[in-house]
């Protein structure tokens, strides 16, 4: 793959932070052409938000700030489970005429996570719409 895949993560709560750290670890271990370039978390002083910030990842408190990065983001993992956040992300991408960035819902993140970690205990998928 010649192009790096730029990823953003929204929501670093209990499940989100575990997924984020697992994904970051697998990216580093596998030397993959994937970069986590931004995260959004309501508490920028949380341990995991600080950790990403220390590694040079942009940390935002508002998810739409990630969408405002435009085509620099290929994938946004919405780990919040909050339909209003996903809708706000969609609206911001549409406002910017961004046809590149894909918003991935929590259920897909959980699927991916199950491939990353052998002993991952996943709660029932959140079914709050696409």
General description of the model:
This protein has one domain (5-116): 3-Layer(aba) Sandwich (Rossmann fold). It is 42% helix and 18% strand. The protein contains 5 helices and 5 strands; from the N terminus they run E-H-E-H-E-H-E-H-E-H. The longest helix has 17 residues, at 14-30.
Order of helices and strands: EHEHEHEHEH
CATH class: Alpha Beta
Q: What's the β-strand tally?
A: 5
Q: What profile does the largest beta sheet have?
A: 5 strands, parallel
What is the CA-CA span between the terminal residues? 29 Å
Q: Which CATH architecture would you pick?
A: 3-Layer(aba) Sandwich
Mean pLDDT reading: 86
Number of domains: 1
Q: What is the tally of helical segments? A: 5
Strand order of the largest sheet: 3-2-1-4-5
Q: What integer value in Å does the Rg equal? A: 14 Å
Helix/strand class: alpha/beta
* Share of residues in strands: 15-25%
State the CATH topology.
Rossmann fold
Low-confidence stretches: none
User: Residue share in helices?
Assistant: 40-55%
Described by the principal axes of the CA atoms, the overall outline is globular
Q: By CATH's scheme, which homologous superfamily applies?
A: NAD(P)-binding Rossmann-like Domain
């Amino acid at each position: 793959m010649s192009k790096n895949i730029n990823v953003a993560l929204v929501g670093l709560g209990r499940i989100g932070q575990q997924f984020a750290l697992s994904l970051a670890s697998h990216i580093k271990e596998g030397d993959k052409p994937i970069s986590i370039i931004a995260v959004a978390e309501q508490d920028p002083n949380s341990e995991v938000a600080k950790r990403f910030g220390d590694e040079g990842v942009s940390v935002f408190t508002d998810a739409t700030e990630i969408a405002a990065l435009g085509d620099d983001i290929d994938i946004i993992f919405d780990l919040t489970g909050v339909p209003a956040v996903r809708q706000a992300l969609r609206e911001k991408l549409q406002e910017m005429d961004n046809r590149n960035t894909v918003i991935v819902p929590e259920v897909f993140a959980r699927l991916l996570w199950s491939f990353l970690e052998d002993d991952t205990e996943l709660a029932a998928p959140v079914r709050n719409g696409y």
